[in-house]
Structures are given as C-alpha cells and as structure tokens.
From TrEMBL:
It comes from Marivirga tractuosa (strain ATCC 23168 / DSM 4126 / NBRC 15989 / NCIMB 1408 / VKM B-1430 / H-43). It comes from the Bacteria. This is Protein SirB1 N-terminal domain-containing protein.
Length: 238
C-alpha cells in the first residue's frame, strides 16, 4: 500500500482556506497544520487550482478522479479522516469528508447525504446534479440524470415503511446493513465528522468494549444530536 505521509512541510504549504465556515468545520475534523504540512494533500490542491478555471463540469470530474488517485488508497470500513491523511485508508465517511472539504474550498455547491448505511455527495453546477460516490474510484462519478435518479432510488426510504417513525429502527445496531432504508437526509460537514465517532462506537460495541463505545458515541452526540446516535447511546451508556 502506498503511504500518504506528512512529509517536507517546506514544499507542501498551499492549502489556505479563505472560507470562514470551512475553517470552523475543519477545527472539528483535524488541525489546520495537518493540511498545511501534508505533502500529498497540498500537491493535490495545487493540481486542482491549475484546473479550477476550466469548464465547471470538467473540473468537478477532474477533482473526483484526481482526489481518489492521490489520496484515497485502500478501503477500510470504520476508518477516520486522520487515518486517511496518514495512510490513505478510507471509507464512505472519511472519503466524503475529504471531498466536501475540497468542494467547499473551490466553492462548488454540494450536499452531503446520510442514509442508513452509506454517505455520498450530490454536487450541483448550474442546477444540474452530479453524484460523487466517494468509495468507487472507477464508476463513482455519475453525471447522467437517469443514472443519478436510479442511484438515489437505491437509498430513498419507502414512505409506507412504518420503521420510518420508530427511533429504535433509526438507531438500530444493525446500522450498516444494506437492507435498511429509513434515513435519507442532508447533513453538514460537521455532522458528517460526527459519523466517524458513531462508526467507531458501533465497532466498539461489536468488540464488546462498551466503555469505549460510550465515549465515541458521546463524541458523536456532541457534534450531531441525531435520533440514531441518541438511541444507540442510550442502549450502551451505563
């Protein structure tokens, strides 16, 4: 596996967000030093900056594939954004954090979509939508309107599903099972970062480390007071 390291900071510093909202969000995800001193991250930003004046759709597609090529190396469920920066290990949450930061940095309108077991991004240019399926380096860029709707349909809840109104279902410990379709909603970058802790809490539960699970779920709640996280926390917390 190719390691994405924290290398020579003198040749790295390029990432300098001017967006105050992005700076505030980053404070909950990683220190700004981690970005400023991360060679691969800053080389990517420089490459993207050189293309940022190109056709908007071309730039968005370029950003999608180049980010995967330079930063996202190996899929591992339950990884964090810090893990991603250190080793290139990613999952849907940490990868979506990466893309959302870059999209905000380059002022690309987008929405982060949370579902029962997955997270993805919908970007928008001139009222046209694009799917960024952040865990699929080959086919994760979707620009065709029919394919976009088909992709959404795979996650949209059935309005007749009685589980939609049940907190127990929304917060089920079966989170991660692809047969569950009760959640489809837009969340913020800060709320997305909370899902890192939520996932770590679920992994700790699976490993029967309930003390660690309680800590991680509390960290998640501090950033995102959702029904799902609350329900699992109440089950686990002493």
């Amino acid at each position: 596996m190719i390691i994405v390291g924290l290398n020579n900071p003198l040749s790295a510093q390029s990432f300098n967000p001017k967006n105050e909202e992005l700076l505030n969000d980053i404070a909950f995800i990683a220190s700004i030093d981690q970005f400023e001193n991360h060679t691969s991250w800053n080389r990517l930003v420089k490459k993207l900056e050189r293309k940022s004046d190109a056709d908007a759709e071309y730039f968005l597609q370029y950003l999608f594939y180049k980010t995967h090529q330079k930063l996202l190396k190996e899929y591992n469920k339950g990884t964090t954004f810090s893990n991603l920066l250190q080793s290139g290990s990613y999952d849907c949450v940490s990868a979506s954090i990466t893309y959302s930061i870059l999209l905000k940095y380059f002022n690309v309108d987008h929405r982060i979509i949370e579902t029962d077991y997955h997270v993805f991004i919908i970007a928008e240019i001139d009222e046209k939508e694009y799917i960024l399926e952040t865990t699929d380096p080959r086919n994760g860029w979707i620009s065709d309107a029919i394919e976009i709707q088909e992709f959404k349909d795979d996650f949209l809840p059935d309005s007749s599903n009685t589980a939609l109104k049940q907190n127990e279902a929304i917060g089920a410990l079966a989170y991660g099972q692809p047969n569950s379709k009760t959640i489809y909603k837009e969340i913020s970058l800060r709320q997305l970062s909370a899902l890192q802790f939520f996932n770590q809490g679920l992994i700790a539960i699976h490993n029967q480390d309930y003390k660690l699970a309680t800590r991680r779920l509390q960290q998640a709640l501090n950033l995102y007071n959702s029904e799902r996280i609350n329900t699992v926390f109440k089950i686990v917390a002493p």
